[in-house]
Design brief:
This protein is mainly alpha-helical and 117 residues long. It has one domain: DNA Binding (I), subunit A (Orthogonal Bundle), CATH 1.10.30. It is built from five helices and two strands, in the order H-H-E-E-H-H-H. Strands 1-2 form a two-stranded antiparallel ribbon. The longest helix is centred in the first third of the chain and has 13 residues, at 3-15. The protein starts with a helix and ends with a helix. It binds zinc ion. Zinc ion (ZN) binds at residues 20, 22-23, 25, 73-74, 76-77.
């Protein structure tokens, strides 16, 4: 990952108050241990909510690294979107994730409890 993309990830993280663009869970940026101490999430679950840089328009669809195209998303949402043969539209994916969050079928129970969903 380039240095500039990392800077955009930090910028997006801060502008979103540390919350995932899709599921709105509180992510961690640099220090999972710090996050763990302040939350009820087990250390084993930490990798799932690591902050990643997400391309709103996927790179495979011609999306650029411009800051307008970068949002902060948790690792789980990011990989779930891109695991598909063709990345779905970010708005459609966001609606999908939100419906799964409401049904408490996106993250394990410990995550749902702490984000009030
Ligand atoms: Zn997420």
């Amino acid at each position: 990952m380039s240095h500039s993309l990392k800077a955009k990830r930090v910028r997006a993280y801060n502008s979103q108050n540390g919350r995932c663009y899709y599921c709105e869970i509180q992510m961690w940026l640099n220090d999972p241990q710090d996050h763990y101490l302040r939350s009820s999430v087990s250390s084993a679950g930490m990798v799932r909510i690591r902050c990643t840089a997400e391309h709103v328009q996927a790179r495979s669809d011609g999306g650029s690294n411009a800051k307008e195209n970068i949002v902060a998303a948790c690792w789980f949402c990011n990989q779930a979107r891109h695991r598909r043969p063709r990345p779905v539209n970010s708005q459609a994916f966001r609606a999908f994730v939100k419906s799964r969050m409401r049904a408490q079928k996106w993250h394990p129970a410990q995550f749902h409890q702490r984000c009030g969903n």
